[in-house]
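Q&A log
Question type: sequence-to-structure
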Amino acid sequence: MPVVSITERIVNPLIPQRADPWIYRHTDGYYYFTASVPEYDRIEVRRATTLQGLSTASPVVVWEKRPRGIMSKHIWAPEIHYIDGKWYIYFAAAREDAPFDHRIYVLENESANPLEGAWVEKGQLKTNWESFSLDATTFEHQGTRYLVWAQRDPKIFGNSNLYIAAMSNPWTISGKQVMLSKPGYDWERRGFWVNEGPAVLIRNGKVFITYSASATDASYAMGLLTASADSDLLDPASWSKSPEPVFQTNPVTGQYGPGHNSFTVSPEGDDILVYHARNYEDIKGDPLYDPNRHTRVQKLYWSAEGTPIFGIPVPDGPLPVRFRSVSLQTQYIYHQDGRGVLADDINRVPASQFRVVPGLADVEAISLEAADRPGSYLRHRDGAIWLEANDGSASFASDATWWIRPGLADNALISLESYSLSGQFIRGQDGALFLAPIVSQQDAADATFAEEW
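Response status: OK
Response body:
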């Protein structure tokens, strides 16, 4: 029977029909999840000890919209935070008589478990002026708590810009708000001129803010702001902006409009990207009322320079994995120009991601489908390993099916034995992948791989 990895047990979409997802891993070992519900009429929170467990965890309604007045319409994008021993939820809400004139509001809960106890309304989080505002997030850095959010400035053309301010408490900003970004590139102006949905990640001596731009259909995409961790975060000059989207629609993988992300971590400490996307492009009516923005997760990678590599939104189904060579510790199985190779090029990480799926020739074995080329599989041909599209033939299915065996050089790892040629294994040699029998200890090492995210 094939080895089953942790990544195989995480399946996208993680949670259907939940947009603007927020996942927070707390010190109690639980993941806490909240997001916009399709009805936009309430705030739900659920928890589980694993990411996949969130998919079946029972949601608890912690707050419902008011029947009239403020907070009575379009409850959007809640986030749950734990600050100084209390839980806080930040969200945006409008009024029945002004359904798109949103403001930011805050809830507080003193219970150890936020699914219990009372959520107290702390009121509107006031910014420097009254206008459409939403998508507040908060973070602490070097002793100061900050708020980052989206808001419309009536003096600037467009729908929303990104702002930052210091905070005196979890529901109050102090001093002047500073604009960090406004829609300036064409990819930020498709349908609407929007910068929204900020999320903060502090790593490698830098502060990163992701954000989403353009209309909420397939145009939606993510951008990135970067500042040195030692800089003045309230100085716009401290921040640089990526000229291109860092995460966007990928028709090949069937993911459209990925965005409004958050970040969480695996139990092992790996950074996880959380986002929503649809799995189709054509939307009937207003995208705002299409309910099928589903919550998805995948691993976030890092360059040697310490900057995030988002890759591509991976296809629906089990999360892809990577296979690291034991004999060449920094090299992974990649596909390149149709061949299977060993390489160390994190900037091309999608070419090293493979979905472990039931074997095309035998469901007790496995096949390895390229995450960035759905329908194409690693197969052997003429003694070499190739990535080729499934032609539907029995010979292709047989040659693209593998047995996962205990690692020949380390039985805690894995080796991949050919289904159609018993006793022959995928081996790395001189940067290429071959199918060959195992004769020496070096052969065994060359045919042993660590399965990773």
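Response note: The first helix runs from residue 394 to 399.
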